[in-house]
């Protein structure tokens, strides 16, 4: 059966999605349209390009996450200069290697730009800090930036969506007014864009299945805030979750697979194979339990 899929952000926790995809395939469910934020946009782009769950698993099994850590060359000569780049470039890593990796994987399927996909079959969420807007790529490219969606590289959109603030340097898009916008992680404004496939009449074309790397909002624990750093972390977390939590409260929780992931940090690019396998198994187990009772 054809369904639409929406994948949340979550950084390296997204390995749990691999197990969930295995369970979904076993139930003979096939994604028609897909959307995602941050790490979720990686999975969504691969699915839209024609990769199946087994192929995605092989891609990520072969991947050394630490290869994505690409600080400016000067930091290897002058270690303290990383703080200079953090201040002026607003990030520790360029993210170029990550973008190239996404590009090469999509190129294997002869997919390069949004023009290579069926219209509306992939949506990537990013945050425009300059304009203070949540942006859906490719839908908003022409209206906001005067950019043709057919010519926009999917790998660039995914890199933008996964641009975790202060970790990866923000990317820039020049708008219609020639103002350069700083683009960062879509999760800052919508970490779980379940709303993206809703029509103006709130009618769904086909069943929508959401995959979210966290507990249900009802099971979220209160944050312990004891100092300024705790408060900064809480601010980011609240911004990432508040919009989506309000929408989830109004939508059908029965169509969301909540995959709680403990003790793995979003940007822990040094997790070993044992942790990856645990994440995959966790995603599979949670999805199996959910789909056993899911009514489309």
List the helices and strands and how they pair.
Layout: E1 2-7, H1 15-26, E2 30-37, H2 39-49, H3 53-61, H4 74-77, H5 82-88, E3 91-93, H6 96-107, E4 122-128, E5 133-137, H7 141-145, H8 154-161, E6 166-168, E7 171-174, E8 180-185, E9 208-212, H9 228-250, E10 256-258, H10 273-291
Parallel strand pairs: 1-2, 1-9, 2-4, 3-6, 9-10
Antiparallel strand pairs: 4-5, 4-8, 7-8
Helix pairs in contact: 1-3, 1-10, 2-8, 6-8
Any descriptors?
10 helices, two-stranded parallel ribbon, 296 residues, eight-stranded mixed sheet
Describe it.
There is one protein chain. Helices cover 37% and strands 17% of the residues. It has ten helices and ten strands. With 296 residues, it is of the alpha/beta class. The relative contact order is 0.19. The protein has helices at residues 15-26, 39-49, 53-61, 74-77, 82-88, 96-107, 141-145, 154-161, 228-250, 273-291; strands at residues 2-7, 30-37, 91-93, 122-128, 133-137, 166-168, 171-174, 180-185, 208-212, 256-258. The chain is globular. The strands form two sheets. Strands 1, 2, 4, 5, 7, 8, 9 and 10 form an eight-stranded mixed β-sheet that branches.
Instruction: Quote the average pLDDT.
Output: 85
What level of helicity do the residues show? 25-40%
Low-confidence stretches: none
The number of distinct helices, counting runs of at least 4 residues, comes to: 10
Biggest sheet, open or closed, and with what strands and sense? Answer: 8 strands, mixed
Cα distance spanning the termini: 9 Å
Order of helices and strands: EHEHHHHEHEEHHEEEEHEH
| Gyration radius, rounded | 18 Å
Kindly name the structural category: alpha/beta
Total strand segments: 10
Shape: globular
Strand coverage percent: 15-25%
């Amino acid at each position: 059966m054809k369904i639409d899929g929406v994948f949340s952000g979550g950084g390296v926790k997204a390995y749990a999605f691999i197990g969930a995809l295995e369970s979904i395939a076993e139930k003979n469910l096939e994604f028609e349209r897909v959307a995602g934020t941050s790490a979720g946009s990686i999975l969504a782009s691969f699915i839209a390009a024609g990769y199946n769950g087994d192929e995605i698993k092989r891609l990520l099994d072969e991947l050394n996450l630490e290869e994505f850590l690409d600080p400016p060359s000067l930091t290897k000569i002058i270690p303290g200069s990383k703080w200079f780049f953090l201040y002026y470039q607003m990030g520790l890593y360029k993210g170029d290697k990550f973008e190239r990796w996404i590009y090469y994987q999509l190129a294997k399927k002869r997919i390069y730009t949004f023009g290579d996909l069926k219209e509306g079959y992939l949506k990537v969420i990013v945050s425009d800090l300059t304009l203070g807007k949540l942006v859906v790529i490719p839908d908003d490219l022409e209206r906001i930036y005067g950019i043709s969606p057919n010519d926009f590289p999917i790998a660039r959109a995914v890199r933008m969506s996964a641009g975790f603030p202060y970790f990866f340097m923000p990317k820039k898009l020049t708008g219609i007014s020639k103002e350069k916008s700083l683009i960062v992680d879509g999760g800052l404004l919508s970490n779980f864009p379940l709303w993206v496939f809703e029509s103006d009449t709130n009618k769904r074309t086909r069943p929508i299945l959401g995959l979210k790397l966290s507990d249900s909002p009802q099971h979220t624990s209160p944050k312990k805030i004891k100092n300024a750093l705790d408060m900064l972390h809480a601010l980011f977390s609240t911004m990432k979750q508040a919009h989506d939590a309000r929408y989830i409260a109004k939508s059908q929780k029965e169509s969301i697979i909540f995959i709680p992931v403990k003790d793995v940090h979003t940007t822990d690019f040094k997790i070993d194979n044992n942790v990856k396998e645990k994440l995959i198994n966790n995603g599979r187990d949670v999805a199996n339990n959910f789909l056993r009772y899911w009514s489309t």
